[in-house]
């Protein structure tokens, strides 16, 4: 029982956000391996996904082991208490994508030898053949590899070969003098292992013998025949990092530790059992090697070993004493052996701040069936016990029989069909699959079955031994060795150069190039032999890729070129594919000099087609801004090719993307001028010659010549607007058409452009006496846009420097030049719109830069005059904005406001008028400005609301605006009806009647306005309700235009006179609203008659439509029937609701008078139907609804009597009323069952309540104290010489009868308790303040005297 109680503790830590987390088995009763702390740091234990970089990236940890237990406790652990693999998170672990990672093998193996190299060790194969035939050594059974190859045979001997495959010796345990008689005495060699320095060999035999050999002298150092019980085969034997300690397991499922010692020159040994097979047979074990780990390995003193049984994997520490570290359960699979493999792996760790650090930690691969789990072990310097965490879990599509690490990122798995799978650990992808059926792999199934010792093993061990190859598949120095019946096969990954060369030799050059690019980017997998820094690796790969590419291009264009009769399109496609790979490879490895050197020369020398393909592909790269410099020959050919094609637009876009360093400036400029490539010409001048004025002046000359033509042309527009953009870019320090001018050239460029632009005379044409000709030309071309360019230039900080920059004019100087050209110089004829644009510019700049721009008052008078002219062809808003800026800057403050106001009103500058009226506090005129301005008329509502609600306005102001609103209400209505309604409802509720009366002549507009008034979303928020006559007017309009909305409105509103509204609705024949008003007035019979009349009419129409005469055959459209029936049902529902509401108010006889006409009417219609289906539908929809509604108010007897009487009067048949009778009986049965069930539940509840009360009265109650909880006196205290009665409550409190107030609640638990008036009242008050109140959860206290 203690074990069960202790086992209830949590064995795993689960977190909704982190998913399943792996933990060790926790069992306090057995002191098992270790308790996994539920308080694991940040709860980050769990499944971690690795990154695709060069090493892993982990996020969550298995909690560290807090307490280490004895191994004996593990051996005695009840397996039924272990957590399943699924519970520990190893069975269905999410991958980086959130699901269990599953790797599917390719449907067909990849070509042999593309990545993996398989080599047969011929020297060893020959020796094995000779040993088997001549020396009778037997067949190979086991293998170990270190500095030597050691191969055990079926006759119990070991053949030792050096790395050159020369036979070094034959190790035999038999007496040389009697070998023939001893053969088979010790059985076949079942397990082998060589130590790290290659000087010692351990050999286990099928009949239990263990021998220890010195390989340098081929001498047996130990002959151990009693290290474990006899009758069991040695299955696994391993050296540990401690040179004196070895481990081995036998077919009994036991694991033993074998220690060699030497005392006084005498060699001896001791053996002890580390794991007993009676607690679960150990199938394999794997010591953690220290080789490959860090120099200061924290595991060096622990001697860690992993061990696998049928149900779990254990990790133990053998030193300084045997301790269990963690237990990892897994599924029991009857047909496969577990596999274990250690590897020291470099692991990336992320810390706060995005920093990373790398550690080298041991990772254990645990394989069972088709599942692989990678578990990392780590130990900090101060931690005595290592921690474990699961890195990832993978599910393969095949059963695995052998599993080994090749390097940090690559593993190999052998499946049951003898195929090798090369797996990338980072993303669990299969790189290659290699078929090894020709190897004839050696299996150790006979040793697991212990055939040579009589087969004394368990059935479970026999069932999993079919594919046992623990000692036939060995990994050594990043290569895999397999022991076959006739030879030893070595499998390793080919070096990266060899892989590339093999692809090239097989004619798969494109795949070789792609693989090389992946190697360059670090994306290639299973790359071997590429060492050095990252930069050095890239350089080596780049050189190899270029060599392959150059050979590929030469071969394709010179040797394997298509025949002369080939289709031109096919030829072009071949050249296209070749050029694409050339560009892709050269740009990826940054070797464009080779692309435009030897590779282009090859394309150029072949034919015009190959050269054209290359240049067209080059064009796409240039347009994408991937190329900026070209070889001179390539650039010249490029220019000539597209010039011959006449595609100058494409050529110009390419010139803009290239640097002028590779251009022939003279050739390019001439071509640009001759073909009007102005953007390219500017680019060449600016970037190549650092010249900014020349293209400006040349384009100005072109523009001036174009402007002399009578009408504007497309060329004129093209040149002019390109000039304006160019000037804007230069004055802003930006390059044209994109980019930025170099910092050192910004000021000279601006000074050059300003100097050329503002030149007082035309240096190219001295006969031209025009002042400032370039400014004049641009103003005449487009005054507004040129001034916009100057306005943006004025925002630059260069104009604000003091002293000013040499060569850059001040704002005042530019303004003076503009005034000189457009105002003072009368030679130039500018239109009023152009002059108005200048004055608008002056107004804006004068307001923004008052400190640097000084304008004469006369000029401002001219500004006002021109800007406010109505005949000016200029955007009104732009002119108004200019005046607003002048007003805000204070420039216009000195002008006469009345005159300014008159000018603004004449020009319809309502925003300026608004400012002046606001200043004068003439708010009605401000409102008129809003109403007259079509762009701001909707803002009038917000203005009026703000004026009426804010406190800064006086009552007089509000009265004036109220008058203005009423006078101009029609304009507000025209702007927004709903907005006007909301405005009146919120700000002018008392004027609602007056406003409504103004709309009387426009009823439709009046209805729309009242719709807004009676909108529930706004009306319910108002304290003042609309007057009744307005409500009645709204109802009248609804009756006329929207009668379907009347009923809902009269139901939701009450602010109207009932008689008047009833008359209006009756006159408009809105029957539903009229019936409701009759019922509200108390005349429910009138309402009933009205609804019944409508129902009768609808029902008669329905009956005539579907009677026998209309459909003699009985067929009718079902959809049409249902739609008409739903309409009838709606009126019936209203009629029934009316009857139900009023049935409680009338006598029994009147109820029959009201309900039976409906029933008769409904029953009269089906007799005319000829279709039985229609009758059934009718009865289900209408008749059943009437019956269900009647049953609550009319007795069942009366209904049944009525049905029978009608049947007799009409001489009908019983089949006509059969559905009705059956429906009534069903209703009766249902209600009867409901009544019985309810009664039974009530009786049952009452019974149990009484039984509970009785049981409580018979139960004694023990008081928690013998003192009264009110007065604190003892229970037996005498009062006037008489013992007082005492009450004990179920909560345990005790109270005197005299201290108990009225009621039966405990005075201490009941907060509402008030003590009786007595001498103890003050004391009771103090007690309540000091004592803590405890509430009793029961609702009733039972007291006992």
DSSP E strands, number: 37
User: Would you identify the regions where 5 or more consecutive residues have pLDDT less than 50?
Assistant: 1-72, 74-112, 1312-1345
Query: Distance between the terminal alpha carbons, to the nearest Å?
Result: 44 Å
Total helices: the number is 47
Q: How many strands, what sense, and barrel or not for the largest sheet?
A: 6 strands, mixed
Structure class: alpha+beta
Give the % helix.
Answer: 40-55%
CA radius of gyration is 52 Å
Describe the structure.
The structure is a single chain. With 1345 residues, the chain is of the alpha+beta class. It contains 47 helices and 37 strands. Strands 3-23-24-25-26-5 form a 6-stranded mixed sheet, with no helix packed on it. Strand 29 and strand 30 form a beta hairpin. The longest helix is centred in the last third of the chain and has 44 residues, at 1214-1257. The protein is flat, with a radius of gyration of 52 Å. It starts with a helix and ends in a 15-residue tail after the last helix. Mean pLDDT is 80; it is low at 1-72, 74-112 and 1312-1345.
């Amino acid at each position: 029982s203690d074990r069960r109680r202790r086992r209830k503790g949590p064995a795993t830590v689960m977190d909704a956000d982190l998913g399943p987390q792996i933990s060790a088995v926790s069992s306090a009763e057995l002191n098992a391996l270790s308790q996994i702390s539920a308080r694991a740091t940040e709860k980050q234990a769990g499944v971690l996904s690795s990154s695709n970089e060069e090493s892993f990236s982990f996020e969550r940890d298995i909690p560290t082991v807090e307490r280490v237990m004895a191994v004996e406790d593990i051996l005695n652990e009840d397996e039924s208490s272990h957590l399943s693999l699924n519970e520990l998170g190893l069975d269905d672990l999410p991958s980086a994508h959130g699901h269990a990672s599953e790797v599917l093998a390719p449907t067909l193996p990849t070509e042999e030898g593309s990545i993996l190299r398989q080599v047969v060790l011929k020297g060893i194969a020959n020796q094995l053949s000779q040993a088997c035939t001549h020396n009778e050594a037997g067949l190979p059974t086991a293998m170990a590899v270190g500095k030597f190859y050691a191969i055990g045979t079926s006759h119990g001997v070991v053949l030792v070969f050096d790395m050159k495959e020369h036979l070094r010796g034959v190790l035999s345990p038999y007496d040389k003098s009697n070998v023939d008689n001893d053969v088979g005495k010790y059985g076949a060699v079942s397990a082998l292992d060589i130590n790290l320095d290659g000087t010692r060999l351990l050999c286990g035999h099928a009949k239990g013998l263990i021998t220890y050999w010195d390989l340098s002298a081929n001498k047996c150092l130990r002959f151990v025949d009693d290290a474990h019980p006899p009758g069991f085969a040695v299955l696994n034997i391993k050296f540990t990092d401690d040179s004196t300690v070895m481990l081995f397991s036998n077919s009994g499922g036991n694991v033993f530790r074998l220690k060699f010692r030497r005392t006084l020159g005498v060699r001896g040994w001791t053996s002890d059992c580390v794991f007993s097979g009676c607690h679960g047979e150990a199938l394999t074990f794997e010591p953690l090697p220290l080789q490959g780990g860090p120099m200061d390995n924290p595991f060096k003193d622990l001697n860690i070993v992993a061990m696998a049984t049928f149900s779990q994997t254990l990790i133990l520490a053998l030193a300084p004493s045997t301790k269990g570290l963690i237990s990892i359960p897994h599924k029991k699979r009857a047909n496969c052996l577990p596999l274990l493999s250690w590897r020291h792996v470099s692991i990336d760790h992320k810390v706060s701040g995005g920093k990373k650090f790398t550690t080298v930690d041991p990772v254990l691969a645990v394989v069972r069936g088709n599942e692989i789990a990678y578990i990392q072990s780590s130990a900090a310097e101060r931690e005595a016990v290592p921690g474990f965490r699961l890195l990832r879990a993978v599910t393969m599509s095949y059963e695995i029989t052998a599993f080994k690490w090749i390097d940090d990122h690559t593993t190999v798995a052998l499946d049951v069909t003898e195929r090798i799978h090369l797996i990338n650990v980072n993303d669990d992808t299969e790189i290659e699959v290699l078929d090894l059926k020709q190897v004839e792999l050696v299996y150790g199934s006979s040793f697991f079955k212990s055939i040579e010792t009589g087969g004394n093993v368990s059935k479970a061990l026999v069932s999993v031994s079919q594919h046992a190859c623990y000692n036939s598949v060995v990994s050594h120095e990043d290569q895999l060795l397999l022991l076959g019946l006739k030879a030893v096969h070595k499998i390793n990954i080919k070096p990266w150069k060899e892989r590339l060369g093999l692809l090239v030799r097989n004619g798969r050059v494109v795949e070789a190039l792609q693989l090389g690019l992946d190697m360059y980017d670090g994306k290639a997998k299973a790359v071997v032999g590429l060492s050095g820094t990252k930069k050095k690796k890239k350089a080596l790969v780049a050189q190899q890729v270029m060599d392959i590419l150059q050979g590929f291009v030469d071969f394709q264009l010179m040797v394997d070129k298509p025949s002369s009769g080939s289709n031109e399109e096919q030829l072009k496609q071949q050249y296209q594919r070749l050029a694409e790979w050339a560009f892709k490879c050269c740009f990826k490895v940054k070797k464009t000099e080779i692309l435009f050197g030897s590779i282009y020369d090859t394309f150029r020398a072949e034919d015009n087609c190959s050269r054209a393909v290359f240049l067209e592909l080059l064009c796409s790269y240039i347009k994408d801004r991937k190329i900026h410099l070209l070889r001179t020959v390539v650039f010249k050919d490029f220019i000539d090719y597209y010039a011959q094609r006449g595609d100058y637009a494409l050529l110009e876009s390419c010139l803009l993307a290239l640097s002028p360093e590779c251009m022939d400036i003279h050739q390019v400029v001439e071509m640009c001028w001759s073909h009007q490539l102005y953007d390219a010409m500017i680019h060449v001048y600016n970037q190549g010659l650092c010249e900014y004025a020349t293209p400006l002046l040349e384009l100005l000359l072109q523009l001036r010549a174009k402007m002399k033509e009578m009408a504007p042309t497309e060329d004129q527009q093209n040149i002019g607007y390109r000039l304006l953009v160019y000037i804007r870019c230069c004055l802003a320090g930006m390059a044209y058409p994109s980019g930025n001018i170099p910092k050192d050239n910004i000021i000279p460029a601006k000074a050059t452009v300003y100097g050329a632009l503002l030149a007082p005379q035309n240096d190219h044409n001295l006969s031209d006496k025009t002042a400032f000709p370039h400014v004049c030309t641009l103003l005449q071309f487009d005054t507004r846009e040129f001034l916009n360019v100057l306005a943006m230039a004025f925002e630059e900080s260069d104009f604000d420097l003091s002293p000013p920059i040499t060569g850059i004019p001040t704002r005042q100087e530019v303004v003076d030049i503009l005034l000189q050209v457009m105002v003072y110089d009368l030679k130039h004829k500018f239109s009023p719109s152009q002059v108005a644009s200048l004055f608008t510019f002056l107004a804006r700049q004068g307001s923004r830069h008052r400190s640097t721009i000084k304008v004469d008052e006369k000029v401002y008078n001219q500004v006002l005059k021109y800007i406010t002219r109505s005949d000016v062809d200029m955007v009104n808003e732009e002119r108004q904005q200019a005046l607003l800026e002048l007003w805000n800057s204070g420039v216009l403050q000195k002008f006469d406001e009345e005159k300014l106001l008159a000018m603004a009103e004449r020009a319809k500058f309502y925003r300026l008028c608004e400012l002046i009226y606001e200043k004068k506090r003439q708010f009605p005129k401000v409102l008129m400005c809003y109403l007259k301005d079509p762009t701001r008329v909707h803002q009038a509502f917000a203005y009026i609301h703000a004026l009426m609600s804010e406190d800064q306005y006086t009552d007089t102001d509000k009265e004036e605006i109220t008058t203005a609103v009423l006078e101009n209400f029609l304009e507000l209505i025209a702007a927004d009806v709903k907005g006007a309604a909301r405005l009146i409802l919120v700000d002018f509720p008392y004027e609602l009647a007056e406003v409504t009366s103004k709309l009387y002549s426009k009823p439709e507009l009046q209805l729309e306005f009242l719709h807004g008034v009676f909108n529930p979303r706004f009306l319910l928020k108002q304290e003042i309700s609309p007057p009744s006559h307005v409500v009645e007017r709204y109802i009248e309009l609804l009756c006329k235009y929207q009668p379907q909305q009347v009923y809902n409105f009269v139901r939701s509103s009450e602010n109207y006179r009932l008689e008047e509204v009833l008359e209006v609705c009756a006159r408009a024949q809105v029957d539903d609203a009229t019936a409701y008003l009759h019922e509200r007035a108390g005349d429910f019979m009138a309402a009933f008659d009205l609804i019944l009349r409508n129902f009768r009419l609808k029902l008669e129409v329905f009956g005539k439509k579907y009677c026998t005469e209309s459909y003699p055959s009985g067929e009718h459209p079902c959809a049409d029937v249902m739609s008409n029936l739903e309409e009838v049902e709606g009126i019936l529902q209203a009629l029934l609701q009316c009857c139900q509401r009023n049935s409680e108010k009338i006598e029994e006889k009147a109820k029959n008078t009201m309900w039976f006409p409906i029933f008769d009417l409904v029953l009269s219609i089906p007799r005319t139907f000829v279709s039985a289906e229609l009758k059934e539908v009718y009865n289900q929809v209408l008749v059943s609804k009437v019956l269900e509604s009647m049953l609550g108010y009319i007795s069942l007897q009366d209904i049944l009597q009525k049905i029978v009487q009608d049947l007799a009067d009409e001489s009908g048949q019983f089949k006509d009323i059969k559905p009705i009778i059956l429906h009534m009986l069903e209703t009766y049965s249902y209600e009867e069952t409901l009544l019985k069930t309810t009664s039974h539940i009530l009786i049952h509840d009452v019974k149990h309540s009484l039984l509970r009360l009785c049981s409580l009265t018979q139960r004694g109650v023990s008081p928690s104290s013998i003192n009264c909880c009110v007065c604190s006196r003892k229970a037996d205290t005498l009062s006037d010489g008489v013992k007082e009665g005492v009450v004990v409550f179920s909560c345990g409190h005790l109270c005197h009868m005299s201290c108990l107030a009225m009621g039966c609640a405990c005075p201490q638990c009941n907060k509402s308790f008030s003590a009786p008036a007595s001498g103890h009242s003050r004391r009771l008050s103090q007690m309540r303040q000091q004592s803590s109140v405890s509430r009793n959860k029961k609702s009733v206290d039972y007291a006992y005297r």
